[in-house]
Specification:
It is a single chain. By secondary structure, this protein is mainly α. It folds into 2 domains: 67 residues, no CATH class; 196 residues, Up-down Bundle (f41 fragment of flagellin, N-terminal domain), CATH 1.20.1330. The strands form 2 sheets. A two-stranded antiparallel ribbon has the order 1-2. Strands 3-4 form a two-stranded antiparallel sheet. α3 runs antiparallel to α4 and α8 packs antiparallel against α9. The two termini are 22 Å apart. Pfam families: Flagellin_C.
Length: 334
């Protein structure tokens, strides 16, 4: 091979490398809509682009935070819906047992209340995104203990009492006891009474989710169910009249607790509204910023497609020349 042939071969290979690089850049631009050489697009001044990219990154974080907060709030709402429905069903059953003419009505309704207590406590231990939603800032801790532990504690608190009113009073004191008083907050509630705060949804909006399983509205429901569960457990120690009185007190407590749950759900609903509003505003801002970013570094689809076709044609021509000169097959050339 002569020196001229070597030089020509080198030129062809160099041109081939350049064309392949150009094809890769143009293909990237067609796929992403972004110019490969952003430095040239912004003429060496990256300040505006950096500002836009920073804002988009923050909006992405806000979006993730908002999605997580929305999931937590909707999970809490679903749990409270279940708790309200369960409490209402038990209250109706207990009231019906007091007006029935058979002896089977009361045991059946009390058994329903005992099962409902377990169900409600389970609903309070629900989690979202790996966090226990009713545990306040103690997101890694279950919100409440088991129904067995609850009933064991109440049995000790009401030991020796034989009148329904006295039992109900002791139960109320146990549920209302402040931290350190040996009541619900010490023995059953496993989370923190401090709600999750500082949830940033946007530059202007941050929220706190204050609702926990320690809230009075939630304790009132558990207390109402626990009264009926105590009546069920006291089948051999209390006369039927006192058990029925406990059932009546339980029904009254459950009905009275509904207003508190409604207020709690309304509070969570207000937070959900803030999340939705922030997401809408963030979405609009993201659209505006993305458009501004494209104005800076966006590739014109028509120009890019035209350039890509031209580069492909040049590569085909180059292959044809190389094949004729070197008698190469396409497979060997590539």
């Amino acid at each position: 091979m002569s020196v001229g042939d070597l030089a020509r071969s080198y030129q062809l290979r160099n041109h081939n490398t350049q064309l392949k690089s150009t094809l890769a850049d143009l293909t990237h631009e067609v796929m992403t809509g972004i110019k490969s050489d952003t430095g040239a697009a912004v003429r060496g001044d990256f300040r505006a682009l950096a500002s836009i990219n920073g804002s988009l990154a923050r909006l992405e974080i806000y979006g993730q935070t908002g999605t997580k907060a929305g999931l937590v709030l909707s999970t809490m709402q679903s749990s409270l819906d279940h708790i309200r429905s369960t409490a209402s069903d038990v209250a109706k059953a207990l009231m019906s047992s007091g007006s029935g003419t058979t002896s089977t009505g009361l045991p059946t309704s009390l058994s329903q209340a005992t099962s409902a207590l377990t169900s409600v406590l389970s609903s309070l231990n629900v989690s979202a995104s790996g966090h226990h939603v009713f545990s306040g800032i103690a997101v890694d801790t279950v919100s409440v203990g088991s129904a067995e532990n609850l009933m064991s504690s109440l049995a000790a608190a009401t030991a020796g009492l034989t009148q329904a009113d006295d039992i109900a009073e002791a139960v109320t004191q146990w549920f209302d006891a402040a931290p350190g008083g040996g009541g619900y907050l010490d023995t059953i509630f496993g989370g923190s009474q401090t709600g999750v705060s500082g949830i940033a949804l946007s530059e202007e909006t941050s929220i706190t989710i204050p609702v926990t399983a320690a809230d009075p509205a939630i304790r009132d429901v558990i207390k109402g169910l626990a009264l009926a569960a105590l009546a069920a457990d006291a089948g051999n120690t209390l006369p039927d009249s006192q058990r029925q009185s406990l059932a009546n007190l339980s029904a009254g407590a459950l009905l009275a607790s509904d207003s508190g749950l409604i207020e709690t759900q309304a509070q969570l609903g207000g937070l959900e509204s803030l999340v939705e509003t922030a997401e809408t505003r963030n979405g609009a801002e993201k659209t505006t910023l993305s458009t501004a970013r494209l104005d800076l570094i966006g590739a014109d689809s028509y120009e890019t497609s035209t350039a890509l076709k031209a580069a492909q044609s040049q590569l085909e021509i180059l292959y044809t020349l190389t094949a004729r000169l070197s008698d190469l097959s396409l497979a060997n050339y590539l």
